[in-house]
User: Fold these one by one.
Assistant:
Number 1:
Amino acid sequence: MSADQPRRDPEEQAFLAAYDASEFAHPSVAVDVVLATVDAGILRALLVRRAEHPAKGSWALPGGFVGFDESLDAAVERVLQRKAGLENVFVEQLYTFGAPDRDPRTRVISVAYYALVDAATLHAAQPANGGVVLATIDVPWDGLDGGDVVALADGAQLPLAFDHATILGAAVQRLRGKIDYAPIGFELLPQRFTLRQLQTVHETVLGHAVNKDSFRRRVLASGQIVPTGERETDVLHRPAELYELHPSTGR
Amino acid sequence: MSADQPRRDPEEQAFLAAYDASEFAHPSVAVDVVLATVDAGILRALLVRRAEHPAKGSWALPGGFVGFDESLDAAVERVLQRKAGLENVFVEQLYTFGAPDRDPRTRVISVAYYALVDAATLHAAQPANGGVVLATIDVPWDGLDGGDVVALADGAQLPLAFDHATILGAAVQRLRGKIDYAPIGFELLPQRFTLRQLQTVHETVLGHAVNKDSFRRRVLASGQIVPTGERETDVLHRPAELYELHPSTGR
DNA sequence: AAAATAGTGTCTATGAGACACTATAGT
DNA sequence: ACTATAGTGTCTCATAGACACTATTTT
């Protein structure tokens, strides 16, 4: 560490050059949204086919540029409404990707978000235009290692635009790190759900099986969910009790 | 790291050549850095006095606009070098703040980072200009609740510019959530440290005392640190063994 | 009745907290 | 010798995993 080096003119000039550049040309700012769901034990995310250059024909996260007077959250809502026909979805900011060459058009800094929704709601919402697919996300790493992921549709790998494989990987990594202590698993289920469904959601996100007994104990002891007194129907076995989020959690 | 870029055909190259990024008004993009340290059991952060409007006279996080061809990480490095005279500091992205009215000049989207350094290094580093203070951070909430924090110098509260009290609070919240499982406590200590020093760092960040016995057991069992065989000197009591990060951790 | 999953009770292993005790520096 | 903190050994308690067992639905 050379923290005690005196400041020299070149450093000051570098600062001034960078500052002046920012006065003339500003980067573009976009939001990209990882809209994820768990469907029958499979992790999926919505992708949009790029109809125009750049990366024409490859698949991208739904996204868009941030308006000059538009908040980041508002931009995300607009994107979700327009590309997936969804409103009032659980959304959290993920990370901001700012490599100078990540978009060939110009400098684009992208603030990535993830949105979670249950599979039924996502299937019911019809996107305004075509060119949209609910891709299967294949995670080629274990635990919290991180890295790019692979998107599949009909068994074939989809080419992903820009650095979106990295953004998808970061979203999976964040979900895996958070699901054990934050109430995000519920966002991937309908309002009423069984403990088995919740366990499947956790297992799908984490990428490995979890212990049934301790999972039930832990979830019930957390006080986050309450039994409804009703049971699931149309199953081939003993029906499980339906639970819902504790009213104080407000959903 | 980043995914393979799709092949560029002539049509796409023509599109890129004709692309005009200045078609719309773009927000400005800045980085703000929470440069934090733990000094004798006190959490501190570097603040810079604003010499110009807006918020003239109040205190702000060190920051600066991102150059058009400059990566976010490079902008953070530049800010740390210029405002604190530091290089090779541990840095991680925190969150991006984008409320349209957070800066009265114009639309400024700020990508916030936090940087961690040990107190001795921070004291040794000479900031380029005056108007810099190492403020005490007072956290008026417990655990992971979150919220604004208060900056103090010489016992008096410092007025904070823009939304920087919120950014500082988010940094504390992130550190508290991460220190139990991520190796960030070591970044706040010199290369060699005692277990008691490490415990004090944890207690200062968390805002509450931790159990000595289980802390020692947990840290030693993690295998992250190794004993050096040497002991501290010039203390009024039995000197403790000095530890350092396990070589494989690479620092 | 058979099949399948829901749900309960209990034993064990592990890790945290508590506490007593010994060790070693400076004064 | 006294004081303060370092460091160790052991007991207890809480929680996760494992496993056996019972309960309840459809076919």
Note: DSSP finds six helices and eleven strands in chain B.
Number 2:
Amino acid sequence: MDLKYRALQQDLKTQILSGIYREGDLLPSEKDLSESHRVTRNTVRQALSGLEQEGYIRKMKGKGSIVIRHHKHTLGVLSVKGFTEILSEKKLNVETIVLDPPVIRSWPVPFFYPLDDIESSAGCVYLKRIRCAEHNPVMLESTYIPDLNLPGFCKKKLIEGSLFKTLNINYGVEITHTSQDLRAIAADPESAGHLRLSPGTPLLHIYLRFSTNREHLNIYSSLLCNTENYSIGNKL
Amino acid sequence: MDLKYRALQQDLKTQILSGIYREGDLLPSEKDLSESHRVTRNTVRQALSGLEQEGYIRKMKGKGSIVIRHHKHTLGVLSVKGFTEILSEKKLNVETIVLDPPVIRSWPVPFFYPLDDIESSAGCVYLKRIRCAEHNPVMLESTYIPDLNLPGFCKKKLIEGSLFKTLNINYGVEITHTSQDLRAIAADPESAGHLRLSPGTPLLHIYLRFSTNREHLNIYSSLLCNTENYSIGNKL
DNA sequence: GAGTGGTCTAGACCACCTG
DNA sequence: AGGTGGTCTAGACCACTCG
């Protein structure tokens, strides 16, 4: 598994993040990239589409691919990514505090996404974490995963604190799709306490569903975000 | 301008919305579509990518492209679309109430997006509207457009109530990119009144910037959304 | 006019899913 | 085993931007 377009995409991303290409710079043309990386222009275009989707560049007809300014104080595009990956790319100090370590329990009723029979009848791995940026709690994340062929998951530590990395390395799970659902709600007392806010403070509530390469093994997350200092988006 | 992939994408979308393909149905395979529409598979894939992005289908390796269930009570993917288009696709009853008809004024200071010199020195076309779904106000939208070569814009009526359609048909403006920024905030008294809510109710605040095919002509919108009954997202 | 990205063709091999 | 989508190649023509 080392796809050419992903390799090129990661190459360019690294160069942008390391400052080789700066805001406003033009990337090499698609023709140049295709020659220097020995791939066709279609493959280059696939890589550049990915970068555009992630908010690193902007493609301009007749001109080229422009590197885009990175906004501080934005948590990143809502995309097929985990929290750790999003914020470490922004070079923010990131911490995760585990409130409830992984346990097997029954599914909450009602659950925020409809579950299929196989998911329902399997148990549910649950964990709850606080995400901090620059030492401030900004996000409260409750995660639910069907307990389908994940032996010993609750006993092991998360690799580098990342759920996705752990699932990938230990169990070969890869994220394939994401869907999301957004609302604004008032903070309940418990959540407010965790986020060091007053109850009733408006929070961004995001329900996420990550599909994976394993059928029925979907990852569900409920995120409560304090958007006072860090907004969510792909502001360019 | 009639691109083959766009034509195919629209074709399939119409068939899905009209019920020819229902939730869970498989679309014809990429090979079949390429033969029946006399285009290559790459072109078919471009069209299907668009439909996937818009949340109409889900592509499954080895299986096919599955038509996805439409959730009621979701306002639609945040995408390169106007409000009118999003909700009419969902077959909801949609109304727009113009609070402040288009006028030329100076830019608010500070403005929520950085403006370039040409935008700043041009005037600013401003309008404010309430969006209703099923006769309930759900969204308060303030729109700002640089007054760059849009003769008579403030005097004319909007075509079918759609800002994008008006800009497109009368001035040849097409949307090319979108960026967005999300926060949760408490409703101020004025906004609360318009949305028939109590002040302090949590609202989803979305800043949008639409880039167009005309340089410097960007469309800026500030949206306040009541997400109590209609959430925002691409829940599948 | 030279270079760019946008679109499109006509093939190919692969991994994955299902019967 | 046969069909599906995922990836990739090697070309082509176009509209657009810029000097």
Note: Residues 4-17 of chain A form the longest helix (14 residues).
